[in-house]
User: Fold BCCT family transporter from Lentibacillus salicampi.
Amino acid sequence: MNKDLIDWPTFISALILLLAVSIPLAVFPEAGKEFVNMANDFMTGNFGVLYLIFGLAAFAFLIFVAFSKNGHIKLGDKDSEKEFGTISWAAMLFAAGIGSSILYWAVIEWAYYYQGPPFGIEPESNEAINYAPAYGIFHWGPIAWAIYTLPALPIAYFYYVRKKPVLKISEAVRPVLGRLVDTPLGIIIDVLFMFGLMGGAGTTLALGTPMIAEGVHDITGLPVTMTMKTIIMLVCTTIFAISAYSGLRRGIKVLSDVNLWLAVFVLGFIFIFGPSLFISETTFTSLGLIIDNFFKMATWLEPFANVRGFTETGFPESWTIFYWAWWLVYAPFVGLFVARISRGRTIQEMIFGTMLYGTLGSVLFFGIMGNFGLHLQLTGQFDVVGFMNENGAPAAIIAILNQLPLAGFMVTVFTVLAIIFLATTFDSSSYILSAVVQKEVKAEPLRWNRLFWAFTLCLMPLVLMFIGDLQTLQTASIVAGFPVLFIMGLLAWSFMKASNEDLRASKNYQSPTIYINRRETRKKRRSALEALEDKNPDD
Ligand code: NM2
Assistant:
């Protein structure tokens, strides 16, 4: 056990913040819940607009960068080849950024929109049916993936172009903050990022566990109790702890591969044995609806709620704002990961790749799984909405799958897939958390450190599950995500500043793919500095 490698101030501060939040929540669940919900109302009520502005700004920023000179910079040297082929690159980035929540929401999200549509649309009306399958895709679509990609820009840039192995968010904002990064401000940035990720993971695990529990109940007949859920959570944690312990090559990669093939199987099965034509048509129509209403959906708040007879739906707070916050807290982590696997690509390829393949993955999940359920509802084969309102969403998800042929088998596969999906997100999260609390990462973070954060990551979800209704769970991401909003701004700025500096100093500025030669740019900068010093000899 090499304690010298640990960055103790960051380690301890993160732990203290986590305990300071979880312990009071666990000891006073009722008051805790009230407080969390109050914080949520305050955040979304007052700052909701910031989240929506941020989402759209991230999207616009990435498109801008992709088409600018900076987008043509290659991540690596002139002769560095792409480290991963495009398909495995796309699969890995999807598996890292997406956890079991996609199984949850892809199956059931439409049912919420069907009953509680936006824009003052009549619930359960034909208009509501149009939006129900589309909105889920929007919330997991290009804006969401843009939020994920933004932090990857500075991190990948520093990693492959400036060749500084940065595994800390604080290091990625050094071009903007300079020496301030070495003050407690640097620690605060890393701790806030860690706390955000733990909040987002809290939402994920607290949503995923009851769904897995319903699956286990369906397979074994055991009743769903708090004990059962706690055991499931511990078993899942143990699986991803083992995976994180075994490291990137063995644990994490093996699980990701299994994850991919199992997901392809489940999607293929539902598509073939479900209403294939309805699924294809509805998905396609949804895409058109989203393109047509893109800005309306991306900007919709309810400024007139409760005046002049506008009724308040709470839709923006419960959904779009919540979602952007949730993607936000995961973003720096996914950025670290996407950066790691993108050597040899240009910035532009990285941007379009994540936005395109990420969205495509979401479209497949929501299009196939969601429309299978919607079809059951509309044809009257199974009243999903009625069942959900009575028994809760996790039970409704399993009930929908029970309408498939070979139901018992499919529920089992789905449950296993949910566990693996959880594990692939959580093993890499604990991997990154442990990397952030080390001064230096030699090949991989220390093993005990990885194990420690794997179990720590479980703390907040456990507490949340005890107190949690859906709103409280969603809140964890929103509240923990607020500071990350500002960190994202710094990350974008930092990327522009560093890459512009290098571009200015670079010789091959005009060629279509730009390779930054570090020795050359450094020399230029040094002589520029010397020239400055010559001018002001007194300084
Ligand atoms: N996002 C993609 O729970 C998960 O699937 C992890 C969730 C941010 C909505 C990420």
Summary: The CA atoms of residues 133 and 218 lie 26 Å apart. The chain has two domains: 3-508, 511-539. The mean pLDDT is 86.
